[in-house]
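Handout, page 2. Input:
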Amino acid sequence: MSEIELKPCPFCGGKAKFKDIGARKTAISVGCATCCASSRIILISAEYCANERAAKDWNRRADVPPKANWTREDVTSYDGETIKNGAAICGRCKKAFFMPTDTFDYCPNCGARMGLIETDDDL
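Output:
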């Protein structure tokens, strides 16, 4: 059997590896050793080789990564303090992240390449 090549992580560039799922190793996925991103879980079956299918899912890349922009919203901390513009919201998946700066080039949730939309407050 030939060696299956796995592309680097599309989010952080880390090394990818196969991960057995379940106590009886009934499924497999491919995941990043650095940021823990992973492919979908493939059940092991006699009908096809799960390693090849998981590798195909992992290695599939969009020609151009989707693009989105960060927007900012106020967030309330656990102690009740309001932090102005403390939450960065992904324009594609709408997930909020507590980030004091916009240093992430990609959304950690959906992988969209990020920019920053300036609000009226920034002008």
